[in-house]
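Rotation project, supervised by the postdoc (A.L.). Task for the rotation student: set up a whole-complex structure prediction and record inputs and outputs verbatim in this book. Inputs entered:
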Amino acid sequence: MLSVNLLLAVCLGYVALLFGVAFIVDRETRRRPLRWLHSPVIYTLSISVYCTSWTFYGAVGSAARNGLEFVTIYLGPTLVFVGWWWLLRKLVRIGRAHRITSIADLISSRYGKSPSLAVLVTLIAVVATTPYIALQLQSVTWSYQIIAGESDSTATAFWIAAGMALFAILFGTRTLDANERHHGVVAAIAFEAIVKLVALIAVGVFCVWGVANGVGDVFANAPAGLTEAAASEVFGGRWIVLTFLSATAIICLPRQFQVAVVENIEERHLKTASWLFPLYLFGMTLFIMPIAIVGLQTMPADANPDLFLLTLPLSEDRQDLAMLAFLGGFSSATSMVIVAAIAVSTMVSNHVVTPIALSILRAERAVSGDIRNLLLVSRRISIAVILGLGFLYFQLNGSSGALAAIGLIAFVGVAQFLPSLLGGVFWRDATRAGALTGMLIGAGLWAYTLFLPSFGGDFVLSAAVLQNGPWGLGILRPQALFGLDGMDPLVHAVVWSVGLNALTFVVVSSLTQPTVLERLQATLFVDVFRTTGGEPTGAVVGAAEADDLLILAQRILGEGPANRLFAEMARVQGHSGGLPHPTDSVIARLERELAGSIGAASAHALVTRIAGRQALGMTDLIDIADETQQLIETTRQLALKSAELERTAQQFRQVNERLRSLDAQKDDFLSQVSHELRTPMTSIRSFTEILLDGAEMPEATRDRFVGIIHDESQRLTRLLDVLLDINRLEAGAVDFPLDAIDLSDAVEGAAEAISSLTLAGNVAVNMDLPAGGAVIHANADRLRQVLINILSNAVKYNAADPPRIDIRGAVDGGFVTLDILDNGGGISRLEATTVFEKFARGARADRDQGAGLGLPISRAILRAMGGDLTVEFAPTGDSFFRLRLKQSNAPADARRAFAGAISD
Amino acid sequence: MRPAERPTMRLAHRKTRTRSAALLLVGVVLLLPPIAGVALNDLKIFGAPFALVYIFAVWALLIAGTALLSGPLWNGQDAEAASNPADPPD
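Outputs recorded:
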């Protein structure tokens, strides 16, 4: 036995070495990208995390128990890598184009960024990873016990689990990378891959040529039934199923997806990995069978074949080889646990914790720093929980059963992702509903037919249920569902879970409609080779890119700020006086700065185009289109506002014009008024002066002069009254009472009032009023005033022979119109435009006919009564006056029509 | 690449793709039942049982084939991209 202390020292030293590698690589990558890290060999070796302690110990055990079957676990991945051009390449391209961070991210993103799918995939991943972790704990515990002697399994396993959790937390959650890349971890597990290979080959060589005597000797005494024709059952259904499962696992296992797709730096690496990874597997498995055979031959019959890799060197007293073998097994276990814990905790924190936290924090406006802390803390807790679950599984399962069997349970669990994954990247019409129902059914059947029965009746499904089915229903027996008896339990579970999963997926997808977002994502994923450009050949990061980025920044931010930004970023990297190397953090920073000026979508599209990571994708274009749309909208709003402003300015201009013209009118009016007033005043003054002179004159002349003075003062007073009147009428300050007046009464009364004029001039007055009478809403006195004014005009200005006046009335709607025509020529159209202006006199007017205020005042009166006075032209070209008056509902008050004094 | 070369390169790339698909098919057929059943006999190759040697030999063949084809597949990518009308010009 090796001393326990030596063992522990070696283990801790090894872990420290790994951590050192990871730490240094992480630090160096931040400063400048490491050339060797971008080697395809590192990428390929990191994929070898596929070979865990299952390969190290379990494969030998499987070979010893079941012969050739163990090879299927490695043939499946080989076939997937041989066909890399169709599946792997597409997954990697999608992963890079859409910045996929996990398998849950891929599936949920494909089906319309569905959070429910993400949660389901995460849950299945957590549950499926649990047995796998338990397997690692089991193998390390056993190997430890072999070397260090018997110990309490539980305690050992617990401390190992705790240690692994610590390693995983330290390795994987020190910082957050936006791309979820962990360069340090990748470097560390690449290193571990070499350790594993060396250890296995060393022990293999030792067994074949050390213990046995060459290849021939090994197989000469091989136990019957192991490799011979008698073992013909080996190439059966189980062989196919196992190959299928392992092919699925190389993609669907969270840790495999992480290293192969998420951590992929260059698509070009697939070119090398396509053959180098199968070659690695080849090398790892080459000695498995020989070791198994030698072990069976030389070890006691009750020895656990899973541990031959350790027990053989120990039995031959090769402590160094045993230590190497232990280290190899330990190494393979820890690399699996670290990567799996990181991958699954990423899913949990991204798809389960963060959405819940964001909805809680939304109200409190969390700063981005809070989210980062939350993510890190949730990841660490998730890692601890995942390992705790693995430990629990280990406890519940007991240390029974072959390691390989436990691993296969995990394989079938993650195989539930396959239909949705393959459908998602190849079938445009796959819908979210299909994926969701398929996965739910698959996961349920997996749990029922394989996962729960693996506890042997100690957990959820009791032994009785396992034997006879739930409630005694034999047809629902977990391992012989619906009567499908006699099958290998694994094959049975795969057929039901994956089979019904795929079937449901296809059927439900065909029956449901994808949403718009699902359709978009479907096109982007399925046609990813058409919608994204290929990788630029050559190095991903180059100095030329930094130049381009600087020019871009200068154009958008301005020369000064851009230069300052780049100088600062260069300084942080340690290149003073140069350009920074375009690492992920530099590019992210630049994007943020540019987003402030041109928007996040445009910044992202431009920067990534120059940095050559991906061509302008459709979602980028849609984002840019959205932003452009918003800009257009904003511009449109601004245009509307400025049009409004223009209109308002226009209105102000119009009002200004009106005010100016009114001002001019007022001036005109004042000058005219003063002129009109002056004329009688002049008469009054001159005659008064004559009288005051006291000159001798006859009494009659004196009386005549006084009479003239009196007349003129009356005239003046009348003029002033009329002016006041018209002013008040136009201002709307007059409020005369309105009654129901009979039209005929009003017209006849007015005609009679001017009868002296008509008789003197021998003017015929014809009236044509509505039969049955009409009642108007007017003021009797004022109406009379208007009618007299117009009628007397018609008489005065009528030069025809014989002179005639026609008065025609009509009812029109709620109004009564009264047309007053004379055959005396009328006025011209030009005069018609000015006839209502104050002091305007017709061509034939003279001084005696008044100041020219009659028509304006008439119109003002009529308007104040709700009507109007207009000049109209008959078809003959003669003009006439039209009065419009409101009709009244009340009966006429006959007395009013004749009342009131006549006003001139 | 010059435009005149494109059709030839596209054809060459198609051939490479076909070969890659054929290789995969060969692997699947040879490594899975029923064809894999041919390995079940009692021959020995250098002392090792035939089935074991058969599996590993086919495996090695697949690795070699993939290695030979991966270069041309990758380099022929430009021709494939150029044949996609939706792609932007070089």
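Student's summary: The CA atoms of residues 20 and 68 of chain B lie 10 Å apart.
Supervisor addendum: Chain B touches chain A through 46 residues (CB under 8 Å).
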